[in-house]
């Protein structure tokens, strides 16, 4: 028996609309895998490729893999690109050419995720190396879903049970604010004079991931059994949410073999507070919830690093400052679906301090095909303190502390230590007089 997949009914409405407008197209399936035997699909987004939009037989693997990577940056921990959908008049599983193209696309996606491991775009523990392929007929509106196993060199097609369901599960929201304040060595490649910003920041995220994998996560101040379901414990406690705390391991001492002295030309201070927001289905276990929390923190950090480094413009002749501030963008949230009743799951994007609130709207539409307005964005979850530039700082003559003093500094001013001493003497004399007369 193959995997079982439950999909929100509004995803079927989206596929039906695409089949009328686009005819032949391909897109991503976003959802959450489960160890309990059922996977959940909550979103579908079309992949647009202007160069091959009119060619019904050609699906661009490079465009699809990059689109999947960009979409993953916007997904909270626990949500993954679980496969693709193909809208086509022919059954793609019965057309060898189309099926071969689909397999190549899925393998390209896997290679892209493998090249970006800190984005944690796959969940091998739950997906078992399989990706979903949903064929939706643009003519009959019929659908069939199968999984493609990428574990072997030659991908194999396996059966899958797919159902569209209205409100398929209850989604529970977990909020975690994770604070990091670490100092790492600033490494420089031997053949380069400048520091590789992305390599150093990526190394910070890599070390932080290792710490998080060994971290202890407490729910409401206490550890939970990994096999217990979140909904079961919430029902027993008669509440609807948890307070989760992440505690990183610390080594109390180093052995003689572990202790060593290294020399570095600089250090990198990696600090800040990360907003982590995940959504888990009703049958999710605490072991899965812990994995999703770690995924969200690491994925969010790596997404910011990649977005920040992509925005940097630096040439080899640019002088290296002694102190450089790399301000990563802050996280903003937006709803996956608007409308009556709403939908609790939210995705996220990233915003630089100098960017306006409207900046992410076009990007969200292009990557996830979600139409939101500036009023829908939650931009105050993470607040970045303002950093004064050099020209905003006080000049030398305006400095609060002065190295030298002149006699003019004391003209017209009271000498506070002398005045304080005189007041103390007067109070003492009054006290002695009062004591003498009352004796």
From TrEMBL:
It is found in: Membrane. Its main location: membrane. The keyword Transmembrane helix applies. Pfam families: ODR4-like. The keyword Heme does not apply. One of its GO terms (biological process) is intracellular protein localization. The chain crosses the membrane at residues 414-438. One of its GO terms (cellular component) is membrane. Keywords: Membrane, Transmembrane, Transmembrane helix. Belongs to the ODR-4 family. This is Odorant response protein ODR-4.
């Amino acid at each position: 028996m193959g995997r079982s997949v439950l999909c929100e009914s509004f995803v079927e409405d989206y596929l039906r609309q695409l089949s009328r407008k686009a005819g032949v197209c391909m897109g991503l399936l976003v959802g959450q895998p489960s160890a309990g035997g059922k996977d959940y699909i909550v979103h579908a987004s079309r992949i647009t490729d202007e160069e091959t939009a009119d060619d019904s037989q050609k699906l661009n693997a490079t465009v699809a893999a990059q689109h999947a990577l960009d979409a993953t940056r916007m997904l909270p921990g626990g949500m993954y690109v679980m496969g693709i959908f193909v809208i086509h008049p022919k059954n793609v599983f019965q057309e060898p050419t189309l099926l071969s193209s689909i397999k190549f696309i899925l393998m390209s996606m896997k290679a892209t995720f493998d090249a970006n491991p800190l984005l944690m775009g796959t969940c091998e523990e739950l997906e078992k190396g399989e990706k979903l392929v949903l064929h939706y007929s643009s003519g009959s509106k019929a659908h069939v879903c199968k999984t493609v196993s990428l574990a072997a060199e030659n991908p194999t097609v396996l059966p899958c049970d797919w159902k569209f369901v209205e409100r398929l599960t209850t989604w529970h929201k977990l909020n975690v604010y994770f604070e990091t304040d670490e100092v790492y060595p600033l490494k420089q490649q031997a053949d380069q004079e400048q520091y590789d910003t992305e390599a150093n920041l990526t190394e910070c995220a890599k070390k932080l991931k290792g710490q998080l994998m060994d971290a202890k996560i407490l729910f409401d101040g206490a550890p939970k059994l990994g096999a217990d379901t979140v909904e079961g414990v919430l029902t027993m406690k008669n509440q609807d949410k948890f307070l989760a705390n992440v505690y990183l391991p610390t080594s109390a001492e180093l052995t003689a073999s572990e202790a060593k002295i290294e020399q570095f030309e600089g250090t990198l201070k990696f600090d800040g507070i990360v907003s982590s927001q995940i959504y888990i289905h009703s049958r999710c276990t605490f072991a899965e919830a812990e994995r999703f929390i770690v995924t969200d923190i690491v994925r969010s950090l790596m997404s910011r690093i990649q977005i920040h480094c992509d925005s940097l413009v630096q040439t080899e002749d640019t002088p290296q400052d002694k102190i450089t501030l790399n301000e990563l963008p802050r996280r903003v949230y937006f709803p996956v679906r608007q409308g009556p009743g709403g939908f609790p799951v939210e995705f996220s994007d990233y915003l630089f301090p100098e960017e306006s609130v409207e900046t992410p709207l076009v990007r969200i539409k292009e990557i996830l095909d979600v139409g939101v307005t500036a009023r829908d964005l939650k931009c105050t979850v993470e607040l970045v303190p303002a950093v004064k530039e050099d020209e905003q700082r006080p000049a030398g003559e305006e400095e609060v502390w002065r190295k030298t003093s002149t006699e003019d500094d004391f003209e017209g001013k009271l000498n506070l230590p002398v005045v304080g001493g005189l007041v103390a003497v007067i109070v003492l004399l009054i006290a002695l007089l009062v004591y003498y007369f009352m004796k």
